[in-house]
Amino acid sequence: MVRAGGSQLRGAELSRHILLSAKNVFLEVGFERASMDAVAARAGTSKRSLYAHFESKDKLFLAVLDLVRELYLGKLRTPGDYAADPVEAVTLFCGRFQQLLTWEPQVRTCRLSISAVERLPDSAQAYYDAMFASMYARLAEYLAERYEKDSAAAMALAEDLVGRTVLARVFRVLLNAEPAIQKPPGEDAAVENVDLAPIRRVVSAVLS
Questions:
Q1: Is 7 helix (H, G, I), strand (E, B) or coil?
Q2: Is 13 helix (H, G, I), strand (E, B) or coil?
Q3: Same domain for 9 and 89
């Protein structure tokens, strides 16, 4: 049985430990080849305990995507966390989003969600909600406040900005046309391994 600091993990702590272990198993072998046996072994717990927390592999996978969302949003933060100037704040926010989405483990997570979609249709929607919908909402809220736009106009502007500054590189990395970022994103919202100049040009042209 898994232990931390000499004491047995229980409840929510064990559930989170299982999810972190399951995330690694899914990334290493894919959705179809991953088994509840492998997850239990990686987590150092019993299958009985695993099934007590997650009654099926499908539900475990969707819970892993919820965990990915939590971890990702903690690293992404909000535009206002990056700079006082709105153009620079949006530039760095979009750059950070690109950095996170083109980081190698996140690229594998996206591919994993796509590969599971026929067996588990909710997985693609869950991944989109985790990685895109939440980001669009944060950016749209910031734009609405700074530029006095209604929610629909702010969302349209957010989607346009991300489409023009982020998604092309994300698709190239997903298709192996460009290498993924290997260095893990830091916790301090620093934007690394991203060319900010073209992002800044687009954001400046749209918002200035």
A1: strand
A2: helix
A3: no
Question: Is residue 46 located within the same domain as residue 105?
Answer: no
- Rounded Cα distance between 119 and 114, Å, is 10
Is pTM beyond 0.90 here? Answer: no
Supply the range of the domain harboring residue 22: 3-55
Asked if 193 and 99 touch (Cβ cutoff 8 Å), the reply is: yes
The confidence score (pLDDT) of residue 118 equals 82
CA distance 40 to 51: 9
The verdict on 10 and 107 lying in the same domain is no
Q: What is the pLDDT of residues 116-138, one digit of tens each?
A: 888 888 888 888 888 899 999 99
pLDDT digits (tens, 9 = 90+) for 29-42: 888 888 999 999 99
**Residues 95, 26 within the same domain:** no
Q: Which residue has the tokens 């000499």?
A: 6
